[in-house]
Specification:
Length: 114
């Protein structure tokens, strides 16, 4: 799969995609991390997703449909939240070039999801 942003393949920059319901429960998740990373284990993923949900202020009441960017551990996370679901896409924190492409992907996906 190849998705380009200003001529650069951005699929390799994304390290995870997590979609949670408004209670913070997993609806979908996909991790693109090297074998042996802590988040390749299911229980660690569930704990991490709880940390993501707890990191978002007003998770249940945010209706602005604006993108939010925050850091959690080793990841830079872009989130999009509405009344029913929250989408989180993460990349390596040191890779600031990934934030704009991730925003682009969220906007593309949200046209279909929201």
């Amino acid at each position: 799969m190849s998705i380009t942003y200003h001529g650069k393949n951005i699929v390799g920059l994304i390290q995870f995609v997590v979609i949670l319901d408004n209670a913070g429960k997993r609806l979908y998740s996909k991790y693109y991390l090297p074998e042996g990373h802590d988040l390749t284990k299911h229980l660690n993923q569930v704990d991490f997703e709880k940390r993501i949900a707890h990191s978002v202020v007003n998770f249940n009441v945010n209706t602005s449909n604006e993108l939010d960017i925050f850091s959690l551990g080793e990841f830079m996370i872009v989130s999009k939240i509405n009344r029913e679901i929250a989408i989180f896409i993460g990349a390596a924190e040191e890779d600031n070039e990934s934030v704009s492409p991730i925003n682009y992907l969220i906007l593309l996906d949200n046209k279909q999801l929201l």
